[in-house]
């Protein structure tokens, strides 16, 4: 898992900008209903982030969750103690601590045609006490940076 962020400032800036873009942090009703239908509860917004090259690369097969961008605690104390945190090295010599989701990443990425720079939200939920995740891909027209495209996409 050796990956060094070459442009640390740009990487951090993209994360910050994406966190501010969407004020709407509501899980889509259809997804909330699906989670309930499978016995899920305790739905929690975890993070919103742009997808980076390593998040969509089949060679890396992971979704990074920087700890300093997590919006709400979603792990039990036991899970927090047992999960491995990865310290990603940056060109400056600093590092960023993160969780990394790896299970089924490649199939999720391919099935949802996920691409670099798209914005996603990660939500957690529980079925009984077992942790689960829901990934919401933000639509292009929801992104205020794409205002000029709205007329085309809405028609």
From TrEMBL:
Subcellular compartments: Nucleus
UniProt keyword Signal, yes or no: no
Keyword match Nucleus: yes
Major localisation: nucleus
UniProt-listed InterPro entries: At2g31720-like, DNA-bd_pseudobarrel_sf
Keywords carried by this UniProt record: DNA-binding, Nucleus, Transcription, Transcription regulation
PANTHER family, per the entry: B3 DOMAIN PLANT PROTEIN-RELATED, GAMMA-GLIADIN B
Protein name, entry field: B3 domain-containing protein
């Amino acid at each position: 898992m050796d990956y060094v962020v070459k442009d640390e400032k740009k990487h951090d800036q993209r994360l910050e900008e994406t966190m501010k873009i969407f004020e709407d942090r509501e899980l889509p009703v259809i997804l909330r209903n699906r989670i309930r239908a499978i016995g899920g509860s305790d739905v929690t917004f975890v993070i919103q982030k742009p997808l980076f090259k390593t998040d969509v690369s089949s060679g890396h097969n992971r979704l990074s969750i920087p700890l300093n961008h997590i919006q709400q605690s979603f792990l039990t104390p036991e899970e927090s103690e047992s999960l491995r945190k990865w310290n990603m090295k940056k060109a400056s010599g600093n590092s960023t601590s993160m969780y990394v989701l790896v299970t089924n990443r490649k199939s999720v990425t391919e099935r949802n045609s996920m691409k670099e720079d798209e914005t996603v939200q990660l939500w957690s939920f529980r079925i009984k006490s077992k942790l689960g995740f829901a990934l919401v891909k933000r639509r292009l027209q929801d992104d205020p940076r794409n205002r000029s495209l709205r007329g085309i996409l809405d028609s």
